[in-house]
Amino acid sequence: MCGIVGYCGPGPASEVLLEGLKRLEYRGYDSAGICVDVDDELKVIKKKGKIKDLKEIVPEDLDGHSGIGHTRWATHGEVNDRNAHPHMDDSGKVVLVHNGIIENYEGIKRRLKKEGHTFLSDTDSEVIAHLIASLYQGNLEAAVRKSAFLLKGTYGIAVMHRDEPGTIVGIRNGSPLVLGIGDGEMFLASDVTAILAHTKQVVYLEDKEIVTITADTYRTSDYYEQEIEKKIESIGWELEQIEKDGYEYFMEKEIWEQPESILRAVQGRIDREGATGHLGGLNMTPRQLLNIKRIYIVAAGTSFYAGMVGAFLLESIARIPASTELASEVRYKNPVVEPDALYFVVSQSGETADTLYAMRELQRKGATVLGICNVVGSTIARESDGGVYIHSGPEIAVASTKAFTSQISVFYLLTLLLARMRHLSFEDGLEIVDAIEKVPDQIKKILEKTDTIRSLAKKYARYTNFLFLGRGLNYSVALEGALKLKEISYIHAEGYSSAEIKHGPIALINETTPSLFLVPDDKLRDKVINNIKEVKARSGKVIAVAVEGDNEVAGIVDDVIWIPKTNPVVYPYLMVIPLQLFAYYCALELHRDVDQPRNLAKSVTVE
Ligand code: F6R
């Protein structure tokens, strides 16, 4: 979604801003712009399209040392130059960039129009610039503070005023904003990746906080002018982690990183002696863990599917009733919070609005909500009542891959922990531990032989519909595989339980709708084979992801992707890798923009 970067310092502002925006490209956007303070004039340059298009129209000699920049993911108003940020009020004095949605912008706009303001764009954001200008009485921070009491909605804003050169005011309510502290320079950003090349020292703003920066000062305060002392934190990521490092796409890099990212997720958290998991961040005593009667997992998209794997493990192995709910639905169903239930929210970014708002609603109702997040210091990570980081490192590609396998890793550890406190024997626990420990090497083996998957992508990429079918633990993996294919290749794909197709989807089967079946050698294998036969009997083409040596499956399907044999409990890890690769190679085959698929954003910070 939209990205913000701001800079005050001795350096060339336009360069710093353009570089910062380039780093934010991964979030998904449709236009971009910058504003630089040049000889006490605020120069705005903005354009529909990519950062490279913007770069072409930024004069090389644009000589200013403070400024703000933005990547826009359209919500109000079509994608065009006019609606791109930064927005300026009609006096030309206030310029701002905004992430989020202003719900009451129409009322404010009507009133300001009556007062003589002229608006140039169709956006809700432009209204804020006019509002701040109308409230300005010689102090930008004060005008921004006053405007906050009039705005309804979510916002992360960076704003400049022509009469206060070298100063930027940032304000946050619902959209992330972070201050970066450099050596004689200050930064603002919606996401640390925008400023990681310059500083690792950051201050995360909370909702309803304001920050005012100059090149060598910053001041944080609340809406009531109270100064707030904020903790300076250090970003744990290295610059190389947000670079492609020789890979063609971030998605490719992130798929190949999984043997290491899974190791990072489980490292120090497996207790072999006790055949259990160890998750310090839960902040719960053994007695409290023993008293959990039910688990709810709340998330969106890929994180939701990881949560489904988690719920299956927790219920089937730890014997705790567990279910997964879509965050976007939880918030509005007036959820019943059960006193003995434990709630998890799962979010790679830790900023997904649906998940964040669901979490807050559950907390309001008294739930204890634990977070499973990747981005350290993200809003969900900070506001949850405890939780676990997955330590995937930055995930830049819009399509989530390594976060999924790290999220399920946390659920494996949680299952071990809770199951060993209940019915799981030491021996059975150790078998699961052994299987988890083998996973990184088994994934490496799959990644060493991607030729089959690449040639299958060539063969199948021009089909326009796909079914992804799996059962039990691998049902959610089928859903994830379908999501991956549709989001990056734009091939229509649906995931189902393979048992479910006879209840409707089998009507779609003919020679033009291939099915991809997940066939682990578990207790449901024979039933899945029956489902494959049902599809074959109707001229459906079938690709199977099957366990090495399963000749029976090979004999009845059109194509097979082999995965190593393992304990059936950990097949989701091995099943998902070929599906990620299949989606990736199909997207390449169709010349799609793999890392930034159309219409999508990395971190969905609006509802
Ligand atoms: C799919 C994908 C999305 C995200 C979803 C939740 O590849 O990336 O479906 O999984 O938007 O995002 P997080 O996990 O950041 O809350």
Could you explain how this protein is built, in words?
The structure is a single chain. The termini are close together. This protein has an eight-stranded antiparallel β-sheet, covered by helices on one side. The protein has a six-stranded antiparallel β-sheet with strand order 5-6-7-8-12-13, with helices on one face. It has a five-stranded parallel β-sheet with strand order 18-17-19-20-21, sandwiched between helices. It folds into three domains: 3-235, Glutamine Phosphoribosylpyrophosphate, subunit 1, domain 1 (4-Layer Sandwich), CATH 3.60.20; 245-444, Glucose-6-phosphate isomerase like protein, domain 1 (Rossmann fold); 449-591, 3-Layer(aba) Sandwich (Rossmann fold), CATH 3.40.50.10490. It is an alpha/beta fold and 607 residues long. The model has no long low-confidence stretch (mean pLDDT 95). The chain is built from 19 helices and 26 strands. The structure holds fructose -6-phosphate.
